[in-house]
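pasting for ref
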Amino acid sequence: MREVSSGVTEAARKRRIPRWAWWTSGVGGAVVIGVVLFALFFDWNLLRGPIAAEASRVSHRPVRIDGDLKVHPLSWTPSASVRRVFVGNPAWTHGGRLAEIGELDISIRLLPLLTGHVDLPLLGLRQADISLVRDAGGRENWRVDPNNRTPLKLPPIEHFVMPDGRVRLVDLKRNMILTGQVQTRETNVGTGAHPAGAFELVGEGTINSDRFTLHLTGGPLINVRRDRPYAFDADLHAGATHIVAHGVLPKPFDFGQVDTALTVSGDNFANLADMTDLALPETPPYSLTGRFIRDGKVYHFRDVTGRVGESDVEGRFMVNDTTGRPDLKADLRSRRLNYKDLGSLVGAPPPSARITPLQIAEAAKLKAENRILPDATLNVGRVRKMDARLNYSAEAVTAPDNLPLRQVKLTLTLDHGVMSFDPISFIMPKGELSGKIRVDARGATPRSDIDLRVIHVHLEDFFKKPDQAPLNGAFEARAVLHGVGDSVHKAAATADGTVTVVVPRGTIRQAFAELMGVNVANGLGLLFSKDQRDTGVRCAVADFHAVHGVLRAKTFVIDTDVVAAVGQGDINLGDETLNLTIQGHPKKFRLFHIHTPISVTGHLKSPKFGLKPGNAPLQLAAAAALGVALGPVAVVLPFVDAGLNHDADCVALVSQAQQKGAPVSPATTTPAKKK
């Protein structure tokens, strides 16, 4: 028995826990109990100062905690609540505050945090007043590093609360001021013990004095996971602009990754400039639908279809903003373009009832002054901020019968403040208007250069019935002009250069040729008898030199088989007035020829034709005197022209026009035949 007892005692002694283990367990337990007691009873308000000081150091801006700080660390989702938080602005903003929050509630998942991921079951901002600032250089007061340009990326948030939030954004880079109220709520839409909650964010306010509203809805935040796409719908109104999106955030809530079906509509495409920071063109009312994809600082708008004005549009856009300077690439086409929609590209008011008050005022001014060239100014600030390349083509064009436009092709390039249309092509049934336009907006005042050519365009195509046209034959022309100003009108009013028009050969209704020579009896006789006979046009050359917006005729000759006419005068591009005279000289004997020039006055938009007072009264007086002395037959003598004029030297005239840049082609040297 003693041996057995001795064995048991020895075994028990071997199984006995070492004394150091007891001490370790006791100390560890005491630490745990101490931590628990500390967490339960510690006054966390004692740490408000150190926490605010550390936050100020890290964020480089003043941070204060003026209210109670409560922490609940004993959980797999530790949480904290703090009242009356003040966050100031960084030093470069020269004072002010970024945010004042009445109560901030936040919780975080502990296990993902241990692996380097932040998941927030709760983020609450109550009575929040937030003021966001972006300066002209792009620095943002809500970033720790103001030069950081990466897209906003938030951790997954399962419950976001922001009742009665106020937000103000002053964006000097985009010349935009936004103020509004923000509300968030989660509406129970499920059933059972754990109903799902649909997320909803509603904002309203003003953007550059225009009212805006934002309605954003998404799936239940409770289901948000970092590896699952988050679906959302957005509906935004900003003035006349309306944006509707149905898409997903592939990685919640990384706003640098977006994939959505997008519809954008409004009165003027240029109004999107404030929201996109892009120099977009003036347009009539538009509506475009496509797929919008954001990948960091690269934006795609693909499979675009819609309308701009009365023209259909399809194609794609891409903007690369990785360098901080937006670079736009676009390929667009129209199956049918309405010619009226082209005017908006140069600032002309669109022909639509849905134009803006500014466009209405512009249209009224042009009408009152009987002008064509618009005064709308080029926004040089926006033009300098971005680069672009746009390719556009129209397969067909809707235009009136007197404008034989069939197709349009152009390439617009914007490179560090220099905008150019090169090439630009307006295709006619025969021939085309082509060339290039360059606007240098790098200086204080834009400087414009145009070099346009009319190549082998036929006169008869400008009439409703070309086979019955009173004018036939190809004409060539070239305009080389340089002007200064921030609008088409100002550039034209200061233009220097040359404009040359040539008709090497052709035909004209003989009645009109006779009247051009003021051959009253023969011309009116042919006209009233509806005589359709033609006479040849040996050549027509008009050469104008522009000096500070005034085109003065240096050479103006129209030589037909029956009449040779010489013109003179000028065209003022500033007020768009005409002051031309054409003196016709018959080549054959003509009875009742009035020795007085034809006048062309009025405006480019509505020219007026008449007989210039001068020699005609003298002729009438001479007729009256001779009638008394010699009898009734002598009355007609002052109106008789012996027809002693000779043909103009067309070869020399055309050669001179060619030397000045008129694109006269060999095909135009033979007479045009009527269809």
